[in-house]
Amino acid sequence: MSDLTLEANGGGFQAKATLNDSTLSIVFSGSGDLNAIELLADYLKRVHEAATARTISLGHCDFRQLAFMNSSCFKSFVVWIDTVKNAAAPYKIVFLTDPNLHWQRRSLEALRRLAVSIVTIEIAQS
Question: Over the Cα atoms of the chain, what is R_g?
Answer without folding.
Answer: 13
